[in-house]
Amino acid sequence: MEYADGLPAPQRRRAMLTIAIALAMAVVGSAIANVALPAMAHDLGARPAEAVWVVNAYQIAVLMTLLPFASLGDIHGLARVFGIGLAVFTAASLACAMAPSMGALIAARVVQGLGAAGMMSVNVALVRATFPARMFGRGLGMNSLIVAASLAAGPSVAAAVLAVADWPWLFALNLPFGLTALAMLRSLPQSPASGHGFDLPSAVMSAATFGLFTTGLNGLSHGEAAPLVVLQFVATFGLGGMFVRRQLMLAQPMLPIQMFRRPVFALSVATSVCSFLAQTLASVALPFGFIVMMGRSQAEAGLMMTAWPVAVAVVAPLSGWLSDRASAGLLGGIGLMVMTLGLALLATMPADASLAAVTWRMALAGVGTALFQSPNNRQMLSAIPREQSGAGSGILATARLLGQTGGAALVSLVFALTEAAGVGRGVLAALMLAVGFGALGAVLSSLRLMRR
């Protein structure tokens, strides 16, 4: 049933539970396979370089299709696209668990990524339709809590499963949760269908642009031939330019370019990308610092890393409540300054720092992340008309994935450039880049105070 301003409280709780189950599956699905890559390569007779595509294929499939699925959400209804994505993700999980070869597993992960994109592309738009406008920030805080808790639990869940079972169970465990969420889909808010057609050329150009951008970054970070990398980036910007020009000519664009003419919206998107660049640079580089430089065990390194998402999970509900009452520019600026301070303290801590000393620095960065995330997401989506909520949700998810993909590629590039100087130099350089992006994000967020 459709409501003008959110759902009644009982249905709202059921809707958020449905969204939470599906979102947790998608978030955990993006990282849970990392732990089992060696076992997958061994069991399926594949080289480690091939096994890495179990992760890459999922991420690329998600990034390539976020905007097309977001457009389909506006055209055919948010709940319908979310439900189809959930069904595809659940079925692909079974295919992953039963894959007889590495090629079949990678193909199943591509399909699983398509299902995840269907859910992620409209997730925040569904939260907007679920909560009254006055409580939208609170809903986003819950959303951030789900993501942070899933990120924190992912490695532990994977390790626990692999301790008692083989790697296919990592995917098979999605089945009961997916079927449960599918049975609860009727609780989701039903948004009106826009009725306009789906623009296939825009979808193809969008997918090709982000796909080439991702493969180009991977090629740059892994030392591929320079002409091939340059060709991929040239094609990326050429197709991207064609895509933008087409959007400007359409009455119902897949990507509402006109929104970027509003300084507050453009600053919010840029701030989001900077935030995720900083977070990913730190989260990928720090384990090398903990294990190689500080001599910590994998268990200790995992405990240190967990402090960040745990802090996000604790502070996210408060951040969501504050975002309904205070300026996103102010809260976002403070949050990113706190996160940047935490990153700077991590970059300058001594090699013999205690577990407690590392943990509170990680937690400080997590607190800053949480203070930034909900207010920024609220301002981004609130600037989009309700009938284009799917597109707004797709932009938000794309900004996050661009930051994460770019951050991971930058760490690989920095490590390659500093290889002769040792791992320590690479970790320090990556953390200083993270500090730089965090500080840039704080400045961009604060500029929104002048544009209100």
Automatic annotation (TrEMBL):
InterPro entries: MFS (IPR011701), MFS_dom (IPR020846), MFS_trans_sf (IPR036259)
Compartment(s): Membrane
Protein keywords: Membrane, Transmembrane, Transmembrane helix
GO MF term list: transmembrane transporter activity
Domain Major facilitator superfamily (MFS) profile: 15-452
Major site of localization recorded for this protein: membrane
Cellular component, GO, one term: membrane
Residue intervals passing through the bilayer: 15-39, 51-69, 81-100, 106-127, 139-163, 225-244, 264-291, 303-322, 329-347, 353-372, 393-415, 427-447
Membrane topology: Multi-pass membrane protein
Protein name: MFS transporter
UniProt source species: Rhodovastum atsumiense
